[in-house]
Amino acid sequence: MISLGSLFSRQPAPLLGLDISSSSVKLVELGRDKEGNLVLERCAMEPLERGWISDGNVEKFDEVAEAVRRVVKKSGTRAKNVALALPPSAVITKKIVLPGGMSEPELEIQVESEANQYIPFSLDEVSLDFCVVGPSASSAGDVEVLIAASRKEKVQDRQGLAEAAGLKPVIIDVESYASRLATGRLIENLPNKGLDTIVALFEVGAFTTSMQVIRNDEVLYDRDQAFGGAQLSQLIVRQYGFSPEEAEAKKRNGDLPDDYIDGVLTPFVESMAQEIGRALQFFFTSTPHNRVDYIMLAGGSAALPGLTEAVTQHTSFACSVLNPFDGMEIGDGVRERKMLREASSYLTSCGLAMRRFLQ
């Protein structure tokens, strides 16, 4: 017998993943084909000037809103629903254990009373959400609940940017959760479906590099370090006397003097590999672990020539640059060569777009 539900079943409503970082706005839209495989329908990126977003705070609202409008137009999407994310520093998360079998309203009351202990602000000042993770490993019959809270103005800033660009914000996530979701799909392609595999994920941003060590969807360790791709631009400015804007443009286009590779790029890549090695040493000295199985790099500077080799040399662990769209069908609305050049920058926006299929 044919179920009418399956005959007329439709994809969840289109959803854009929009990642607003300190250096750019990145947009991803995903769909599924008839076989259920993920399809990259659209992706687009728009640079932001330094200081428009600082430490996750929106300093120049109108300018960033305009950049969001441009990226939506550039992508050609008609979708309006959008998933956005806040930096982990703007969100307090806590796992708590509650009795199983409670109704949603009962859970809500219980979560609010528990949240008071962990949140250093009045509950009137925060946006609070929670989800049941699953049965508690430590006490039978109880459930593990994840609480997430952020100050209302942080959430409203992100919502406001989306609304100013004619979009409807339906999900506010945490950047590190979104990047982990996109990485999890790639870890499943590793031998033995990535089971018990320890992966050190480094997201190299403009000013900060975030590290998460993941095993079986669990974060064993995380840490932020103050180094990133913007330091390379500063070196280019110092070496050749370009303006910061010129340096950024020439870095992106590969339009630099002949001595750039030996004089600027190679030493920078070397120091970045050392920073990654140092971050791993912090992980080893503060946990029972003394190795990782893979190092994965994402972010705008992850694809710098020679970086993966330098990291492997410094750490002796296999290192690769992530392409979050690996194994997806590529839709007609995507310029494939450009996408492949920039793919590692789209990790968080890809994870946000994947929320379409998890609601």
UniProtKB/TrEMBL annotation:
Spans through the membrane: none
Alphabetical list of SMART domains matching this protein: FtsA
InterPro entries in UniProt: ATPase_NBD, FtsA/MreB, PilM, SHS2_FtsA
The record's annotation in SUPFAM superfamilies points to: Actin-like ATPase domain (SSF53067)
Q: Where is the SHS2 domain?
A: 15-183
GO biological process terms, alphabetically, are: cell division
Positions the record marks as coiled coil are none
One Pfam family matching this protein: PilM_2
Q: Which domain of life is it from?
A: Bacteria
Xref: NCBIfam families: pilM
Q: What is this protein called?
A: Pilus assembly protein PilM
Q: Which organism is it from?
A: Rhodoferax sediminis
